[in-house]
Specification:
The chain is 89% helix and 0% strand. The protein is built from 3 helices and no strands. The protein is mainly α. The chain has one domain. The radius of gyration is 15 Å and the shape is flat.
Length: 64
């Protein structure tokens, strides 16, 4: 259970950093995402999930 809280906390930190350090960049990214079709947004989401899984797997290999 502690690992879940740790993971969620890290996600919120990274998301928050993006909004604090580059809010205009986040706004441009959201505008670009609005222009994509539904299928393209699903593909972006799927790629993000795969990248997340790879990062978790790498962390697991390092014993985290």
């Amino acid at each position: 259970m502690a690992m879940i809280f740790l993971a969620l906390g890290l996600v919120f930190i990274v998301e928050g950093l993006a909004y604090v350090l580059a809010p205009s960049l986040v706004e441009r990214l959201l505008q670009m995402m609005r222009q994509l079709g539904l299928q393209e947004r699903r593909q972006v989401g799927a790629m993000a999930m795969v990248l997340g899984l790879i990062l978790v797997w790498i962390a697991h290999l390092f014993g985290v």
